[in-house]
Amino acid sequence: MCKYHQTKSTMKLSETKLDTNQLSNRSSLKSNTPKRSDSCKLSYRNSVKSLKSNSNKDGGILHQIPDLDVPYMEINKEYDILKNIAEGCFAKIYLVHHRPIKTNVVLKAIHTELTSFKEFIKEFHYSYQLSHHPNILSSYNVAFQSNDYFVFAQEYAPYGDLAANLGPGGLHESSVKSIASQLSSALGFMHSKSLVHRDIKLENVLVFALDFSRVKLCDFGATTKEGTLVAKIKHTWKNFLPPEVIESVKHERFICRTSADSWQFGIMLYSLLTGNVPWRKADWVNDAKYAAFKKYEERKTTKIPENFSKFSPRFLRAFRKILCHNTEDRAKVTEVMKYMKDKWMDSKITTSKSTGNILGQAASDQDSICVYLNNRESKNSLDENKTRLRRLMSTYCLETSLDQNVVKKRIWEWILSCEEGHGDDVEGY
């Protein structure tokens, strides 16, 4: 198999490739790895070099998928599986220990029955070539196949994905701005190379710092060159799909555009700020919430949709642009950077305390509680917020201990309530 390239999480991307090559050479002297592992590594690089002469400026080598000879090896031959990090419809994600060089790494194992070899090579190619960007998950020059899986290696994210870190009331505004800035950079980089991710969602953004100062985009299995004809596929949250995909007929092929990433990026920002999704699906005929927003977005009414009333006027303008129904007028992901110095949430709404009945007051306090829980800017502010939280919850005779299992259960209840059944509501493109 190919050598695993060990990297430090704080390395710059330009340093990462150099240092991992040096480590790979050193480790090959210490281990009894078969020679074919080295040939696998060189096979990929030689294939890439042979394509460089035909590269162009708007994506170049990224759009030329090389022919690779991936060796056969069972995972347990060189790796000890420490735990199963995640499991989806097409793949399993393992945290493993690589015995020859005594280090931990993540292996993405993709079911051979559900993915063709060509699709696997395409995902591996994009994952490896795009990992030069600091906000895209690093993939290593390691690929092999077993009886049941195609496998390649990636770096480990110690704090999971955004879905695991999102509470019922969303994240603090400053945290969301940090995430938005990093994802805007990663997607902007992809779009500059005429690549469309096509599957932007909470589960595909990994967290490397508890204050969200370092997050990375991952999972390039659906990544496609812009302008390519694509068809709907299964297993993507329908809540995140843009209207042009929702409106397309099943099995009908349509042109892949970067504007689809912009839409999903906008839905993600809404989810991070509120802990919910704005609508069940972007179908203005059958979804009343989306119909109300579309009418507001097209300036056919001045009435702000109820589920958007907590945002500031300035950020409502951003939502109007990035969630524009017309793909030609939809803003690019990088446009969010224009709003970084503005308030995104309406402070009058999010911090007000109603003088009405206690139920209305408690509901308002719940919004404040979620803000307190997710404010991680400094240790002092966190301690202060914990004290204030305990005092506030005690006032309403609420339980003051937080059970993480209960939190996870609430997240899953929210997902299931949004989807109303896997078979009907989960769809892709």
TrEMBL record:
<feature type="compositionally biased region" description="Polar residues">
    <location>
        <begin position="7"/>
        <end position="34"/>
    </location>
</feature>
<dbReference type="GO" id="GO:0005524">
    <property type="term" value="F:ATP binding"/>
</dbReference>
<keyword id="KW-0418">Kinase</keyword>
<dbReference type="InterPro" id="IPR000719">
    <property type="entry name" value="Prot_kinase_dom"/>
</dbReference>
<dbReference type="InterPro" id="IPR008271">
    <property type="entry name" value="Ser/Thr_kinase_AS"/>
</dbReference>
<protein>
    <submittedName>
        <fullName>Serine/threonine-protein kinase meng-po</fullName>
    </submittedName>
</protein>
<dbReference type="Pfam" id="PF00069">
    <property type="entry name" value="Pkinase"/>
</dbReference>
<dbReference type="GO" id="GO:0004674">
    <property type="term" value="F:protein serine/threonine kinase activity"/>
</dbReference>
<feature type="region of interest" description="Disordered">
    <location>
        <begin position="1"/>
        <end position="39"/>
    </location>
</feature>
<dbReference type="InterPro" id="IPR011009">
    <property type="entry name" value="Kinase-like_dom_sf"/>
</dbReference>
<feature type="domain" description="Protein kinase">
    <location>
        <begin position="79"/>
        <end position="345"/>
    </location>
</feature>
<keyword id="KW-0808">Transferase</keyword>
